[in-house]
Amino acid sequence: MSESFFQRNKPFVIAEMSGNHNHSLERAIKIVEVAADAGVDAIKLQTYTADTMTIDKKEDEFYIDDPNSLWYGNSLYELYQKAYTPWEWHEPIFKRCKELGIIGFSTPFDASAVEFLEKLDAPAYKIASFENVDIPLIKKAASTGKPMLVSTGMATVAELDECIRAAKTNGCDDVALLKCSSVYPAAVEDSNLLTIPHLKQLFDCPVGISDHTMGIGVSIASIALGGCIIERHFTLSRDDGGVDASFSLNPSEMKQLVEEARNAYVALGKITYGVSGHESSVGRRSLYVCEDMKVGDAFTEKNLRSIRPGLGLSPKYYEMLLGKRVNRDIARGTALSWDMIG
């Protein structure tokens, strides 16, 4: 696997702003500042308008009539009007990201969004899970030569293969995948994290998670399975409302995620056995002389014991040494060594 923009010496954590700015640029900038303080590596926006996403129709499939949906009672057009980030905000948001030392990038939803983001010199592109079958969009983003992050969502292996091939044959050599469940919020049992190492093996690319579950457990678990990227929706407070607020992390949760994801990554370490790191063999058992002995005395169950610490001979020699005689005087509490015997 070649070096990737998204693969660092720590998990790459992305805070997804989405529509949690609640149509306030001041709040959007505050989200950037608080996310940076929590330790994220990047802020991601979404670049679209209601008109680039759908048509203004309130009936049939254009109306959200599922009472279990967070967005029940809205038409698709109305939802995107509420959720979109005004394009004129992108430049000041990206500027603030740069000032704070984090990466600002976005998800384009059509060709015009890619062209707009190119004018802002966006460093990378994200393809949303519902758009990973939009091959013309993928080709357009790939043609910039920028790194590309793709959420898997409902895509089949064949569809992901087609997506990645389209990206790589149109100028993008750096593609990473995010395992995700395209449900908001997502159930933990639908996470299927075992897909992460399978994706990594199939496509030989960095893999991570776009996590829509509540809490941080699923995100942390992804690291243990080889994930190196975590994307989470982020808000200043769920109580403030917003189209995605109910399944977004708040500042303290994001900070904890960043810290624990890095701990999980460090904890992976390497395959090793025996004494490692800060471990010490002192805490193990070994053979000690537990009564004063004179030269010629024989070892018995009373004067030879397997105890802590572990500075004497291994306990495995205990039965063999019973009845053997010592060649010197030995004080109680002496770690046994071979040169004391015989």
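Next protein, fold it too.
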Amino acid sequence: MTDLIRMHVQKALEANSRIDGRKNDEYRPITVETGIIKSAEGSARVKIGDTEVIAGVKMSLETPYPDTPDNGNLMVNAELLPLSSPDYESGPPGDEAVEVARVVDRGIRESHAIDTAKLVIESGEKVWGVAIDIVTINIDGNLFDAAGLAAAAAICSAKFPTLEDGKIDYKKLTDTPIPVDQTPIPVTVYKCGNAFVIDPTDEEMKAVDGRLTAAVIADGRLCALQKGGEAALSVEDLKQMVTLIVKKSEELRKIKWT
């Protein structure tokens, strides 16, 4: 994006005017579908406008980490496929993929979304491990919110596989859901010039100076924060962004999952 186009996009956003007719604080249409992958213990597909992300949950028997012998294991991975955007390349995870995984992981972990103590089979010896894989299908801006929402929906839909004689039968899921205590809702506010924007398109993303992502639980508390972009954020910026984050999290929480 040339400096001239960037300036034009920023001026439009500062005037609360967007190409698709939305206001700065409006999301594009959002759909959340669960149970879309038969081979996963839990899965979800999230579409925010033309951005589409899939998350899947796989469970395995593992040894607990030495510093948490009485808790199950949790891991989040993100793969940004080249088919979803010309900005992504094949190969090992790049910086953006690593950041997406860490932001989603932090939101789930710090909200205590999963009661990992209930994943213990034998203290210090054997626990359930929960792996959440996030894959991009199409990217048209606002990846963090789509990825976080897909991961949250996937864990909420996940059920334990059958465990018999120490062996897992992945073809037979039980009726027991994994122990989810909280549903962290991710919201990202982007700063473009002097404007604060929700859910930018890919074109608008190129005019972004900075961003703040937060995971919010049902009572409105923030349990994780991640600042991105090169622009510094003032105390007043943070106050406005956090206020908007909490407001929009309430809106996203009302979305019905299918």
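About the second fold: The longest helix spans residues 235-253.
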